[in-house]
Design goal:
single chain, mainly beta, five-stranded antiparallel beta sheet, 2 helices, 48% strand
């Protein structure tokens, strides 16, 4: 096919050649780990001997002795490297220069601020780089084919000028130049493919609806256009290829479907091979090998949507349904001088790296690993920053846990599960999230809360063994879903009213039918008040008792206990199991109907064990020292003093007055509340008046640190509901004004809250 074009005089003839003595001379050598895998070796066998390259490279060109790659950094600067097949060494090229190449060991470099180009022979590290200078800055590089640069410019009249510029031959000091007679109205000229001695140029003629695209094969030795092929009104995708006997390109026909078009060189009918559905606008890379077409949609490794075109696939040209999956994804692809194809991609079987695609003995394309990045293709956890022990009390109730993935395009959940109760905390994450996308890291800033089910009101996490589980799905659909697990332990201090081993006070209540209920309280920095994580019924038949008291850990176990007196005067103990329930009752002793008031939980003698106080019908207060033994919880009673029949309720509240000892509050018949500060030996200092108006409450509970400010509090329940009196640590004013809580807003439903 001919072109009606008469070669014109070039815009400028000021083309000179210089020897770039220093340009590109300073090359850094970085040895790789091993020699490259031989072409045709199996993927698994090649993996053991592959050289190592950076994970973020993209291929630029490939020669007989090595390949050129580029790394792009977050600041948009680039680094180019030449990696040798023979010894695995990598040359890091001058970072101020952009490099390109075309199916040879020659690399062309140009600094952004200059119009000159430098030609490097990478097969001969000792060779002096050759500078090719074009004196007119209007010319730009359309591409490289071997040692030849295709230069184009448009003059002020809109006419195109194109020529080839190559290294000088023999002892010449001037570059070899050849005119290329493209149509005068050709635009968007680029080197679309190369072959030995030939460059395939793609260009556009016309604009808008009248635009037409063409391919032209150019003989490098003479600059002669040997043949042109009209492509159509749509530009070919990146998949344009040239062989000794055919032109080929990928054509988008419907916006969602693609087909391979081949045209015989020298003339003949075009043939098409359907390639299947594609994401609209997505390009496909292409290479031809004998009777096979190799295609793949680049970018699948980092994509956030699946595509059937991500796998690098070899498809028989004579039987398109005969296909071979070569790799699971491809990011960049270049052709080597021997016709094999070098691919930066990955497979689930062998991981990420640079692969060579070449025919095996039967002519079928196979993939062999040339260089590995050391990273898996399938989604994986590369590190888990989860401490073996999380002390939630020491850390303010929070913990940071992190998992780093080998890539960010994933979505899933991280679950922390308490082994004993099944309660859990869950974090959903996605590669669309900024932090995951930027760092590949899933970070869980755990607030120390767990729930039985997602959406339930959360409670503080109990102490004990935990399992973490990370589940993730690759957004690009490449490889299996990821599941990783591990373990850690949570530590909590057991509080005065802590029956669930989570450091948070629990409140117990009994209704008229004898049902026993537990509310696990929660107060977080973000919550305006103390609330219940949920009410749980934990027993029946408790109507047989006329006195119920939560007395702290009196048996030496891991959780707080309860004592209960029946109508016959027998006192029973219910040992807490740490899960919010209690073991079967055991008898403490008989004769306890001699007392009309019983309270416990405060450490009154400084031995770090809770003690019991009881007032007899004569108004004498008795001290029962706690032993910490389940089969003998209290020592023999010791008389504290008389006159305590002036009070209708006494409540052990722990240390609320700022000393190191447990204290007691007592309400008289006039509704005045008094503080009796412990003296550390089972007795009390002179009482201090707290205030009046306390007669409306039916239950006063020394609940411990309910608001989690480090000070013990008082919980008051009456017909109107419940209120929290936060501790101040002051002996003269031990409580702040009462604040409403919703925990027992239905207090009228219960006859005892403790």
């Amino acid at each position: 096919m001919s072109l009606n074009h008469v070669p014109r005089r070039r815009l400028t003839a000021a083309v000179t050649v210089v020897l770039a003595v220093t340009a590109g001379a300073a090359l850094t050598m970085a040895p790789a780990t091993a020699a490259p895998a031989p072409v045709g070796a199996s993927t698994s066998a090649a993996s053991a001997t592959a050289i190592t390259v950076a994970d973020d490279i993209r291929l630029v060109s490939a020669g007989s002795t090595g390949f050129l790659s580029r790394r792009t950094f977050p600041d948009f600067t680039s680094e180019y490297r030449w990696t040798s097949y023979a010894d695995g060494t990598t040359k890091i090229l001058d970072g101020r220069t952009q490099y390109s190449g075309g199916r040879s060991d020659y690399v062309v470099g140009r600094k952004d601020t200059e119009s000159s180009y430098t030609l490097y022979d990478m097969a001969d590290p000792g060779a002096r780089p050759i500078g090719l200078t074009n004196g007119d800055s209007r010319y730009s590089l359309a591409g490289v084919s071997g040692q030849s640069l295709v230069m184009t410019a448009v003059d002020s009249n809109g006419a195109l000028d194109a020529f080839l510029m190559s290294r000088p031959s023999g002892y010449s000091t001037s570059p070899t130049t050849r005119d290329v007679a493209l149509p005068f109205d050709a635009r968007d000229v680029r080197v679309a493919a190369t072959l030995d001695g030939t460059a395939l140029l793609q260009y556009r003629r016309g604009t808008g609806a009248e635009a037409e695209f063409h391919l032209a094969s150019v003989e490098l030795a003479t600059g002669t256009i040997t043949e042109t092929v009209p492509v159509g009104t749509k530009a070919p995708r990146t998949g344009v290829y040239l062989t000794a006997d055919r032109f080929a390109w990928v054509e988008n026909t419907t916006g969602t479907g693609a087909q391979l078009v081949t045209v015989p060189r020298g003339g003949g009918d075009r043939t098409t091979v359907p390639l299947g559905a594609t994401v609209q606008g997505a390009p496909l890379d292409l290479a031809l090998m004998g009777g096979w077409a190799v295609t793949g949609q680049p970018g699948g490794g980092s994509a956030t949507d699946p595509s059937t075109q991500y796998p690098l696939t070899a498809r028989s040209l004579t039987s398109p349904n005969t296909q071979v999956r070569l790799l699971d994804h491809v990011d960049s692809m270049v052709t080597s001088p021997d016709g094999s194809v070098l691919v930066r991609g990955g497979s689930v079987a062998a991981g990420e790296g640079v692969y060579r695609i070449a025919p095996d003995g039967s002519g079928t394309p196979v993939a062999s690993l040339v260089a590995t990045t050391g990273r898996k293709t399938q989604l994986d956890v590369t590190s888990a920053l989860v401490p073996g022990t999380v002390d939630l009390d020491a850390s303010g109730g929070r913990a940071t846990l992190a998992w780093t993935l080998n890539r960010s395009n994933a979505q899933g959940t991280v679950t922390l599960r308490h082994v004993a109760t099944g309660k859990k905390a869950e974090l959903a994450f996605s590669g669309y999230d900024g932090q995951v996308r930027a760092t590949n890291t899933v970070t869980m800033n755990w607030g120390g809360l767990v729930a039985q089910n997602v959406g339930d009101s959360a409670a503080f996490a109990p102490s004990g063994a935990y399992v973490w589980e990370l589940r993730a799905k690759p957004l690009n659909g490449i490889g299996p879903d990821l599941v990783r697990t591990g373990t850690f332990k949570v530590l909590r201090k057991t509080g005065l009213h802590d029956h669930t081993d989570n450091g948070s006070p629990d409140l117990l209540a009994r209704d008229a039918a004898g049902g026993l209920f537990r509310d696990d309280t929660v107060k977080t920095p973000s919550s305006s008040e103390v609330y219940s994580s949920g009410r749980t019924r934990i027993g029946t038949g408790w109507q047989i008792y006329n006195q119920l008291e939560a007395v702290g850990n009196i048996a030496g176990g891991s959780a707080a206990d309860v004592v209960a007196r029946d109508a016959s005067g027998v006192l029973w103990q219910y040992l807490g199991k740490g899960d919010g329930t209690f073991a079967a009752r055991t008898k403490i002793g008989a004769g306890w109907n001699a007392y009309n008031k019983i309270t416990g939980g405060s450490d009154l003698d400084g031995d770090a064990r809770p003690d019991l106080l009881a007032v007899d019908t004569g108004g004498v207060l008795w001290f029962y020292k706690g032993t910490g033994k389940w089969d003998g919880a209290f020592a023999a009673r010791v008389r504290v003093g008389g006159g305590w029949n002036a009070y209708n309720q006494i409540t052990a509240v722990g240390n609320i007055a700022g000393s190191a000892h447990g204290d007691l509050v007592a309400r008289d018949t006039a509704g005045v509340l008094w503080l009796h500060q412990g003296n550390g030996s089972g007795g009390f200092a002179a009482r201090v008046r707290i205030g009046s108006g306390w007669g409306s409450f039916t239950s006063l509970v020394g609940v411990g640190d309910l608001d989690r400010d480090g000070l013990n509090d008082l919980y008051a329940v009456g017909a109107a509901g419940s209120r929290l009196y936060s501790g101040t640590g002051s002996a003269t004013a031990p409580f702040k004004p009462g604040v409403f809580t919703s925990v027992h807003s239905d207090a009228a439903s219960f006859n005892s809250v403790f």
